[in-house]
Each structure stands twice: as structure tokens, then as C-alpha cells.
Amino acid sequence: MHVLITGATGFIGTTLVQELLAEGYKVTAYVRDLSTASALLGPTVSLVTDLRTMGADTHVGAIINLAGAPIADRLWTSSYKDKCLNSRVDTTRELVRLVGRMAIKPSVMISASAAGYYGDRKDDLLGEEEPPQNIFMSSLCADWEAAASGVTGYGVRLVIPRISIVLGQDGGAFPKLALPAKVGMGAILGSGEQYFPWIHKADLIRALMFALKDNQVSGPINMAAPDMVMQRIFTERLARVYGKKAFLKVPSFFLRLLPGGMEHLFLSGQRMSAEKLETAGFVFQYPSLDDAFSDLSLYRHELHAQ
């Protein structure tokens, strides 16, 4: 099968491309920087820089859409919030227009979303049927998902993985969390009682491949490990890996000084249910936080001790 992928040079995309190639898929990546993409992805991946140049004769069996500016890398100024939104929605709409032009339609489109879709839901166990809230991350994800919905009108199976915080050694949030924990500076944010949805990167890649191959998987689907813990518990367990304690606390009022509602990244929680993914037949390799920390070569102390 031939797969068209966006976001191929990102933290998740580069690993997913490697997995696709390893399983014998042909891969074309939509990229913005040819030289960077070529260096990251290698010579076996075809590169395109403008989706509008792809016409009716384009034939791909699947589209995987991971495009989007990093959410947490910069302060949420009005201009950066616009960039975060537009980089997702505009690319997704362009992909839907491409599908409309194709004489032969792809069988599936996997278009990413995020845990932030749910907003701040306290202790609620969140299945995919829950509605979004009226905050920026929630609205961004809802608009992102809505932009992808047009492909269903062409008979294309649409999967919307709502991706939680991805734990991997090679990028994303985890190195930023592990470094302060290692030196005893891991911090509890606000009350620390907000749920901290997470998934091991290897499980996310496997789950995306599962969704690609299984024709019964469709619609929104939570991609989060079943071991949902509060931010305080996550931080304490991570600190204990290094023989440290998490004694620092960042008051909520301090985080609320961040611009543009950015405090929701740190103070809002989502207790995501993995039921739909597991019921579909997916088996997590790293279902618990202890499993994940162990695989990340961080298992130094007894994590079960209280």
C-alpha cells in the first residue's frame, strides 16, 4: 500500500515513517523543507511540498495526517495560537480537497487530534462521545476534527486518534519532564489532582498501525494508556525513579499568568478511557506507568512503594 503522510518529520512522524517502510509500505511525505526531510527520512521516501500539485491521477491507499505546529513550545500569543490552529486545519482541508480530486479514493484517512479535545473534565472517565469545551485547546481540536470529516462524503474510512501525552526518549514531553525529576526539581502543578493522560511512544505507533490496518476502526478513538494517573502521581513516580522526591509545587495562580489561556495545558486534566481501542483488539505493550518507565531505561527503584 502507498501511504501519504503529513507531519512526517516530527517526533511521531519520523518513527511512524520508519515503521511503515519496515512493513513494506510505499511512503510519500508532504513536507515544507526538502533538505531537512530528506536528511531525516532517507532516500526511499518520496517528498512533495505542495498538495495542490497532486491531481486526479494521485493514487494512495491511505493518508495519515499528523501536521501541526508544536502546541507547548512557545507562549500562546494571539499570533502563535493562530499558527497552531491554521497549521492543522488548513493542511487537513487541503488533504480533503486532494481526496476530492482523486479518481481512485484512498481507503482510509487517519487524521490526528489530541487529549485537549475534552478540555478540563476533573474525574470524569472520558469516552469518545464526550463533547468539547469552550477553551482554546478544545476548540482547536474540534475544528481540526471537523476539517477532516469531509472525507467521509467520499466513502473514505476516517479515524481520528485523540492522542495523549507521548512518552519517548527521543523527543516530545518526556525529556522535559525527566530532566528536572532527575535533579530533584520535579514539580506538582497546581493541586496536582488533574489527570495526566499518557501513552508510550511505541504503543502509539502500534496503535496508529492498528488503525491503519483494521477496517473496523473508525471515528474518534482515544490513544491513551489504561493506567490513568493524576499529575501529582506521575511526577512523584518519575522522581522516585531517580531516587528523588517531588517536593516543589507551582501554584495555580502563577500558571494563570501565562498568556492566552495557556494555563490549561498544565492545570486541565483528561481521564481518558482506553476501552474503545482495547475492545477493537489492541493490546498495550506498556499499559502501566511502571511498564513505561522501565522500558525507558529509567527503572532504578521500586516504583510500587508508597
Question: Care to describe what's here?
Answer:
With 306 residues, the chain is α/β, with parallel strands linked by helices. It has a domain at 2-166 and 199-224 and 274-285: Rossmann fold. It contains eleven helices and 17 strands. The strands form five sheets. Strands 1, 2, 3, 4, 5, 6, 8 and 14 form an eight-stranded parallel β-sheet that branches. Strands 10-9-13 form a three-stranded mixed β-sheet. Helix 1 (11-22) packs across helix 6. The longest helix has 24 residues, at 78-101. The chain is globular and about 60 Å long. Residues 299-306 have low confidence and may be disordered.
Summed up:
Residues 3-218 form the NAD-dependent epimerase/dehydratase domain. This protein has helices at 11-22, 34-41, 78-101, 136-148, 174-182, 201-213, 231-241, 252-255, 264-267, 275-279, 289-295; strands spanning 2-6, 26-30, 46-48, 62-65, 108-111, 113-114, 125-126, 157-163, 165-168, 171-172, 187-189, 195-196, 198-200, 219-223, 229-230, 248-250, 271-272.
Number of strands: 17
- Termini, distance in Å? 49 Å
Low-pLDDT windows of residues: 299-306
Radius of gyration (CA) equals 19 Å
At CATH level 2, the architecture of the domain at 2-166 and 199-224 and 274-285 is: 3-Layer(aba) Sandwich
CATH topology of the domain at 2-166 and 199-224 and 274-285: Rossmann fold
How do the SSEs run, as a string of H and E? EHEHEEHEEEHEEEHEEEHEEHEHHEHH
Helicity range of the residues? 25-40%
Structural class comes to alpha/beta
Q: Could you say which overall geometry the principal axes of the C-alpha atoms support?
A: globular
Provide the residue-averaged pLDDT.
94
- Give the percentage of residues in beta strands: 15-25%
**What is the CATH homologous superfamily assignment of the domain at 2-166 and 199-224 and 274-285?**
NAD(P)-binding Rossmann-like Domain
What is the count of DSSP helices, taking H or I runs of 4+ residues? 11
**In CATH, what is the class of the domain at 2-166 and 199-224 and 274-285?**
Alpha Beta
- Main β-sheet: number of strands, strand sense, barrel status? 8 strands, parallel
